[in-house]
Amino acid sequence: MDILYLLFLITFVFTLIVQIKVSTTFDRYSHVSAGMGRTASEVARRILDARGLFDVRIERVHGHLSDHYDPRARVLRLSDSVYSSSSASAVGVAAHEVGHAIQHAERYAPIVWRTKLVPLVSFASRFSWIAIVIGLIIAYSSTILGNYVVSFGILLFAATTLFHLVTLPCELNASKRALRELELTGWYSANELGASRKVLNAAAMTYVAALAMSIIQLLRLIRIFGNRRD
Q1: Residue 162: left if φ>0, alpha if ψ -120 to 50, beta else—which one?
Q2: What is the pTM of this model?
Q3: How many whole angstroms separate alpha carbon 145 and alpha carbon 201?
Q4: 97 catalytic, yes or no?
Q5: 97, 171, 181, 192: which one is catalytic?
Q6: Whose CA is closest to 128, among 144, 145, 151, 147?
Q7: pLDDT at 39
Q8: Are 196 and 121 in contact (CB under 8 A)?
Q9: Rounded to 5 degrees, what angle do the CA atoms 58, 63, 67 make?
Q10: CA distance 35 to 37
Q11: What's the rounded Cα separation, in Å, for the pair 161 and 66?
Q12: What is the rounded distance in angstroms from the CA atom of residue 5 to the CA atom of residue 28?
């Protein structure tokens, strides 16, 4: 069996397992109350204020696990399933997003790079495959021009892979910061911190899977295009 195809299948299965793991872990610890009933939004505000980030607002947004930190607006957005919950899962997720706010305030290098890459990746994720398909069509009448367009599409896809590569240390570091900040509040027992750690560890694997899948797909594109040119 082709090695890249085998790696693709392994990575695909790994990604599915990780997604299931995240969902089941979050659900499991969403029923475990932590911090004496303090909500995730309250905990997030406490950590932000302790760090002097008084100008970072906290907003509630619709959706499930749609939590994120917006560095441009300086807004921490917590989903319905997190904002008012006091569970170990919700608190871990909220603290993780606060970790990104702290990274931004400290100008943590990977998050600075990731922020700068966002406009490029937004374009690349939309048009990389379009460029590849158009290039293949053009190649029927003009091989050289078609090859250039396909190469451009692969280059765009490579930009998304780079984004995943930069994102991974951002996410791992944010989780590390989150657990440290939760511990510093003095509100959580070792068992409660352990529950939040399991949720964050499961979530971290989604970024590992995303990077692995992106690398495999990029290698397959490069090889397919190389074979076609030969």
Answers
A1: alpha
A2: 0.87
A3: 46
A4: yes
A5: 97
A6: 151
A7: 94
A8: no
A9: 40
A10: 5
A11: 22
A12: 34
**Residue 140 structure tokens:** 């029927």
Alpha helices in the chain (DSSP H): 3-29, 40-50, 80-83, 88-105, 109-138, 143-185, 190-229
Mind spelling out the 3-state secondary structure of 48-95?
HHHCCCCCCEEEEECCCCCCEEECCCCEEEEEHHHHCCCEHHHHHHHH
What does the pLDDT look like over 42-67, one tens digit per residue? 999 999 999 999 999 999 999 888 99
CA 136/CA 38 separation, integer angstroms = 57
**What secondary structure letter does DSSP report for 39?**
-
Q: How many CA atoms lie within 13 A of 180 on its CB side?
A: 11
> What backbone torsions phi and psi does residue 75 show, to the nearest 5 degrees?
-130, 135
How many angstroms separate the Cα of 73 from the Cα of each of 35, 76, 93, 97, 106?
Answer: 29, 9, 20, 14, 16
**Cβ proximity of 85 and 30 under 8 Å:** yes
Domain ranges of the chain: 3-229
